[in-house]
Amino acid sequence: MAFSRRSFMKSSVATVASTIVAGRPSSVFAHPRTTDEFVDYDALGMANLIKSGDITAREALEITIRRIEAMEPIINVINTRTYERAFDKAATIPTDTVFAGMPVLIKDMVDVGGVRRSDGSRMMLTNIPKENVKYIDGVEAAGMNIVGMTNVPEFAQLGIITNNKAFGLSRNPWDLSLSTLGSSGGSGAAVAAGIVPLAHGTDGGGSNRLPSNAQGIFGMKPSRARMLSGEAGGSHSPVKTNQSLSRTVRDSAALFVHTEDPNGPFKPIGLITGPSTRRLRIGFARTIRGGMAIEAPVSAAQENTAQLLRDLGHEVVEAEIPVFHDEFFRNYNGAFLGQFSVFNDQALAISGVEAADSGLLDPFTASLIAYGAGTPDDVAAAGLDYLATVPVAYAELFSKIDILLSPVMPFLSIKGDTITPETLVNESVLALIQHTLSFTVSANVSGHCAMSVPLNWDPESGLPIGSMFQAAAGNDGMLYELAFELEQSRPWKDKWAPYSVKYIPI
């Protein structure tokens, strides 16, 4: 039997009422489950329904809660539910804001006032920031309603698998045996599963692009310091930026307007609404020097993307990523691995014993701390000196091309149990992580903008394969214009994962 919009909403209200017991969700399966007729709407589409009075912000929230409760037992992507806070907010969000009360999920690595921030760690389970960071202020000013916090690897360190001992493994909606990638893996899976059409993520080494690549959605890493600060105190991370993972480009572009810093180093790009007529010179890097061989499906997908660009009238030329894999990671590790001792200091302050013995940190994190503790000061200094040359190398590359095209990662997929929170760090574990990050992380060191766009699906497995596009620092608008053009030429919004609310009643 087909449900009308209002009959769906009536069922939704009854079901959601049953899920809120003393502020905690109970089973949603006491009421009949039905097909979600709103699943094909993106965030702006749902916001238009709210603005027109077809639904209310509260009803949009109720729909999202039903989706969470139906999908969580399958994919496990929510660390903290903020239902009561969201119901209070739904009554106050003006309908003339851009998103008019649309629910959003926030990655569990940023401060939201009054909401637990765990960073995926048992050590942080009682950490409740008092106030929003500026980026979250921008998200809420845009009319988004925070309904929960998404799963992450502990302190983002187990970066290619979203798993931790505090909350467990997040599963990829395209294949539950596969990794969501990370560290914004919980956010990516929530979008791919249709829980929300847009979720927040942070990208410190590929964390928005890798999950988007693995889950058939759009992921953006803005230029360094382009966005409102995501750090307490208003500073900017030297490598990490905040933005979103989404089903459509327009949702991401609309949020971008309200979360970019008007006082930052770049002139705000404003609202990008479609493609540019400008034809671009696009450099195509098929591999990275010194890296592992690219798997055949990934290579074929990038060749297909390059041909699409030619068909659209862009000039595609040969290019090389301006770093050598081994040299880059040797210096990257030298510069950063020793800094993980801060987590050991926190564990020691709380428990009185070292991280490995405290029971507060996952064995992976504790072993990473121990591994990095032996980094000599001269190695760390040499690493920082080398990393300072990376922005210069990319600036020279972007003086010759407008955009750089490459794979997002060399693999088609990674099994979810390839590395676990119990895994102890050694050379081979680090090598796997580094190969996975080989195409993405140098953009974070350089500070320029990059995005993953879902343009191909493997014909054998059916898995999505993203293509990464990078542009010079400050050229975020150019990336959005290209993303709109690619989305129009090869739409992906209606390509749904098997384990999503498109196919699973809520």
UniProtKB/TrEMBL annotation:
Keywords tagged on the record: Hydrolase
Keyword Transmembrane helix: no
Highest rank taxon of the organism: Bacteria
Ranges where the Amidase domain occurs: 59-479
InterPro entries listed in its UniProt record: Amidase, Amidase_dom, AS_sf, TAT_signal
GO molecular function, one term: 6-aminohexanoate-cyclic-dimer hydrolase activity
E.C. number(s) listed in UniProt: 3.5.2.12
Pfam family, any one: Amidase
PROSITE patterns named among the record's database cross-references: TAT
Similarity remark: Belongs to the amidase family.
The protein's name in its UniProt record: 6-aminohexanoate-cyclic-dimer hydrolase
Organism of provenance: Pelagimonas varians
Gene: nylA
